[in-house]
Amino acid sequence: MKKLIAFMLIVTLATTICCIKTYAEGAPDVSCPSAILMDQTTGAILFEKNADEKRAPASVTKVMTLLLIMEAVESGKLEWDSPIAVSPEAAGMGGSQVYLKEGETMTTDEMVKCIAVVSANDCCVAMAEAISGSVSSFISKMNQRAKELGMKNTHFNSCTGLDTEDHYTTAHDIAIMSRELMKYEKIKEYSTIWMDTVRNGAFTLSNTNKLIRFYDGATGLKTGFTDDAGYCLSATATREPLSLIAVVLGGETSDKRFSDAKALLNFGFTQYTLYQESPSSIDPVKVIKGMDDLIQPQLAEQPAFLIQKGSEKSIKYKVELSESVLAPVDAGQKIGTITYTCDGKNIGNIHLIADKEIPKVTFGHLFFHIIEYFFTV
Questions:
Q1: Which CATH superfamily groups domain 31-273?
Q2: For the whole prediction, is pTM greater than 0.90?
Q3: Nearest to 301, CA basis, from 352, 375, 365, 376
Q4: For the chain, which residues make up each domain, given as ranges?
Q5: Residue 278 — pLDDT band, cuts 50, 70, 90?
Q6: What's the mean pLDDT in 295-324?
Q7: Which architecture characterizes domain 1-27+276-377 according to CATH?
Q8: Which are the catalytic amino acids?
Q9: Is the pLDDT of residue 10 over 60?
Q10: How far apart are CA 87 and CA 105, in angstroms?
């Protein structure tokens, strides 16, 4: 039944993503050679420019590194206060770093803070070794996770993003993994830090992502720069009810990547909103030969349809329910559908499911009620 529910949610989500088919007027002029704007909730693409072009991602690579760290903590492999030992390899990393020394330890919490805020390569290597035993094994895990997420034009050969052969991704794929990472509310505790310290205040961190301080609603996520990649950025922001992901790759200057990302985010917040209304009440469905006579339908998921601003009043929904269901009824069993339309066009469907299990009535149950009836009349 869990697999069935998951399948129904995927079908519903796929329908939701299709509700935006053309870009709104006023799409921004983006200077970076590759860019994309994605709705974080539905995955709908609002703007793209060479979004599937393979490019070096620089430190935006660390979005996947951070995702695997979050998943390791979620699975119990690591704790936030776990001490992470620094190997000679980690201590010897160049580029952006917090100058870890061989034999030093930092907690997972401190390591993630350093990666998210100042893009610390040495911390990436230390965390890769802690999770997978070696950097090469961790990179294999990165590629496996990319495949699972449907990142079709990505191959990682680094956990840091330093220029190396056969290390590439696309703006579209970065948006996909950024969306997955942002499902962890915890990551915002790190990605929204402007300034902080580690080592008991002895080492200062200052965020490389200027949007965190200067863009209203910014929630992250990761900057990057190398000679091969140019200036890159995966920028996330929320202005309720909308959350957006803007990715720009190959910028000529740092300022251009930030201005492009801001233009994309402004376009999204100006033109679109998220429709989330649901029926206030839904009639119960009759159950035949069940231990209960009625079953209450509930939404398999809350509505989340990306629409152009101003079209809210044109949205209607129609509830379609089974006249009755035959027991036994499984919790989560589909018993109806809500169809949403905008100006008469279908924008998505949400399944209505049984809110609980109802077993089939048994002879013993009927016999008990017959006896109860005779003794109470």
A1: DD-peptidase/beta-lactamase superfamily (3.40.710.10)
A2: no
A3: 352
A4: 1-27+276-377, 31-273
A5: confident
A6: 93
A7: Sandwich (2.60)
A8: 59, 62, 119
A9: no
A10: 10
